[in-house]
Design brief:
- There is one protein chain.
- This protein has 2 domains: 73 residues, Beta-grasp domain (Ubiquitin-like (UB roll), Roll), CATH 3.10.20.30; 70 residues, DNA polymerase, domain 1.
- Helix content is 36%, strand content 15%.
- The protein contains 5 helices and 5 strands; from the N terminus they run ββαβββαααα.
- A hairpin with a 2-residue loop joins strand 1 and strand 2.
- Helix 2 crosses helix 3 and helix 2 crosses helix 5.
- The radius of gyration is 15 Å and the shape is globular.
Length: 154
């Protein structure tokens, strides 16, 4: 089947079986390798992208389910929220190995888009991504710093 995918402001025509996970379309077909494979069961969050503004895990999300949606990957996270988060991530030295970070940033951006002043509890409830390096405290501080940069309270 042929699917038209709107990704990062561009349209792509993709030949695929409908059940193929979006992750493999992004990485193997389109070369958008910022979205990572972690677990394959939508548990770790390394594969998180935005689908119509919502953070979604792509390792189990069939390409057929997103054909009429707007998709943003880490490569397309270039708005004010993405810029503020990246700056805060660096300032607070969040990444260690860095593998989970694209998914973390996508989840954090979706949170800040709906909750410009998240509490620690809201961050913990929303960001269920796994960081094997355990930088969760730094992640929280970075999200608060990005919120402050964007005009929310720290």
């Amino acid at each position: 089947m042929t699917f038209t995918l709107a990704i990062n402001g561009r349209e792509y025509l993709v030949e695929s079986e409908p059940e193929v996970p979006l992750l493999w379309i992004l990485r193997d077909v389109l070369g958008l390798t910022g979205t990572k494979f972690g677990c394959g069961v939508a548990a770790c969050g390394a594969c998180t992208v935005h689908v119509d503004g919502r953070a979604m895990r792509t390792c189990t999300l069939p390409v057929a389910a997103v054909a009429d949606k707007t998709i943003t990957t880490i490569e397309g996270l270039d708005d004010a929220v993405g810029t503020a988060l990246r700056a805060a991530w660096l300032s607070h030295q969040v990444p260690q190995c860095g593998y989970c970070q694209s998914g973390m940033l996508m989840s954090a951006a979706a949170l800040l888009a709906t909750q410009p002043r998240p509490s620690d509890a809201e961050i913990d409830r929303t960001l269920t991504n796994i960081c094997r390096c355990g930088t969760y405290q730094r992640i929280r501080r970075a999200i608060h710093a990005a919120a402050a940069t964007l005009g929310g309270a720290a």
